[in-house]
Amino acid sequence: MSALSWLVACAVIADMPISHAANHFLDPSTSKGLTEGNPALKHSLYVSLVSVGSPGRLSAGGQAANTWWSSAKNPMSYVGFAGQFRKAVTSPSATGRARHLAGSLLAAGSMLHVLQDMGSPSHVRNDLAAHQEQVSASNDDLGSRFERIASLAFGRLGISRSTSAPALSSLSDHFSNAAGTGLADVTARGYFSNNTLPHSFSVRRDAGSSKFRGLISSHLRRPYPQAPTNLDLVAARNPQGATWSNEDGVCLTRYRHKQAKLSWWIDDDCALEQLEAVFPTITGYGASFLERLYPDDIGMAERSGAVVVTGDVARYGAGSLLFFSESADGTRTQFHTGARQGDGSELYLAPAPPAGTVKVAVLFDGTDKTGKPLLATTVLLWPASN
């Protein structure tokens, strides 16, 4: 299969068994995953996984997403990815390397699923109750209506663009970080989920705008999104209510003023607006995450019969470099190893490979500049002058 197919294959099953799905949540305000802190969550919940259509029990607990993606308890975490990545370079046979490359892509797809769940508001606002909504005519078909709309509207191939993720120093920073630029941070700050909308409250129709905004602020369950200055009580008295939009014009929630009470809800059209806005962001973070899993900035060239390896000076820290000679039949044999040299863009200068070599492969196995694990590889035709 193509690399994309392997990625999708494990992304689809990353919620299986159902107990693993509880590890796909992260509330940046507490740095925790699903907890019992929300009264709406204190009952048994059942969800229907869209990918396989079978119900399973989903309950609070488990690890937060920003630890689950790299946890040894996760069979498709970074631990498994790293083992498969190394074997995809070091295995003697071409078929073995292909098999392990597929294994690394499966683990990458699973990690990508966990990260991209951080673009769903219920996953980052401790809102498990949002995953027990009825999502079809069947009373037994329960799950996240927001995510079901995403599936129906976009499928797997309906996302046509992406936005660049901010500069992030590590894989873990893609989830959440002190600067508030992780995907979970951005989503939790920018959107409501169904059960974290403002509380309903009573307000007189002649309330001034400043008083109205103050009342909304006092009834927010969380500091963000912040109450805007342009909510309209007059429009809210219409049967269809009015819309609270963000500065980009994306619907955050509908609101209605009826019998002196202000109420809030997110309808399907509002959710679709949100999805159209968040999907490019989710895609951008995913692309950045994959680029860090499979760095493409490591280079290799021939210099006077020797092999020189280069890399981004801002990325590569300490580590070992393993060199392999590949023969015409695809067999690889390690012929040299050494520690990263200096602190510049030239990572290592290795001796020439043995006679009969048609390709040279290198594996950097070490850390990045922040001390986090880093793997990178590239291949050079040999002799390079041919």
Features of this protein?
four-stranded antiparallel beta sheet, 386 residues, alpha+beta
Order of helices and strands: HEEHHHHEEHHEHEEEHEEEEEEE
The N- to C-terminal Cα distance equals 31 Å
Number-wise, the strands total 15
- Average the pLDDT over all residues and give the rounded result: 89
Strand content: 15-25%
Helix content: 25-40%
Sum up the overall morphology in one term.
elongated
Uncertain stretches? 39-55
User: Structural class given helices, strands, pairing?
Assistant: alpha+beta
Largest sheet: 4 strands, antiparallel
Count the helices. How many? 9
In spatial order, strands of the major sheet run: 5-8-7-6
CA-based gyration radius: 25 Å
Number of domains: 3
Detailed description of the structure:
- The chain has helices at residues 3-13, 65-68, 78-90, 94-116, 121-124, 145-154, 183-190, 209-218, 268-293; strands spanning 46-48, 55-57, 133-134, 142-143, 201-202, 242-245, 251-258, 261-265, 299-303, 306-310, 316-326, 332-339, 346-350, 359-368, 373-381.
- With 386 residues, it is of the alpha+beta class.
- The protein folds into three domains: 3-177 and 276-293, no CATH class; 198-265, no CATH class; 299-381, Sandwich (Immunoglobulin-like).
- A four-stranded antiparallel sheet has the order 5-8-7-6. A four-stranded antiparallel sheet has the order 12-11-14-15, with helices on one face.
- Helix 4 runs antiparallel to helix 9 (268-293) and helix 6 (145-154) packs across helix 9.
- The protein is elongated, with a radius of gyration of 25 Å.
